[in-house]
Amino acid sequence: MQTLDLAKRFLGLATFNVLLSVIFTAVVLDPFLCVSVSPGQFGCHDNMVTTWPGTWLFIGYFTFLIAGVLGAFGWAGLYYLGANLRGKTEVNNLLSRAHLIFFEVGVLGAAAVMAAVGYVGGGVMATGGGAAVAAESIALNIFPPLSNDPASLFNDMPPIIEAVFIVMALLGALVGVLNYISSKSTGAV
Fold it and tell me: Quick one: pLDDT at residue 19?
């Protein structure tokens, strides 16, 4: 695959992520979700900005903006500059596809799970629930437990799913670095 083609794909991915961030921003600004409104307005007892676990909504949001949007633009720039300044015009096709897929699925999934934890748990807190009810709501409503044993690793699934997505994003970054290092000039054998 040509390095400039991969740079264009990452540029397209970055544009897609910008569009997703506009949608996420519109959701965050809805006052009835109690994300950033003052307590007592719109039926909100509290807001998600200052109350755990609602802060995870913003952590996921900013993670997506930084890693998903700026990261995709960064990868596009790296491959573009590698082709134009270093003459590295060919990259491995399999590594390039793996890089794109692992990067986007990992970043989008990790940010989405963080935001879901903040939205579900923060929604409970913002409407008058307590921390224990919010924690139970998160554990049961986002990803149902695979085990009923409280000592089991699979009793609380959101952290497990979050870890899988983070590992996938890190694997995407590692594959990207390996792909960039192993890129070749057109005339190289």
Answer: 95
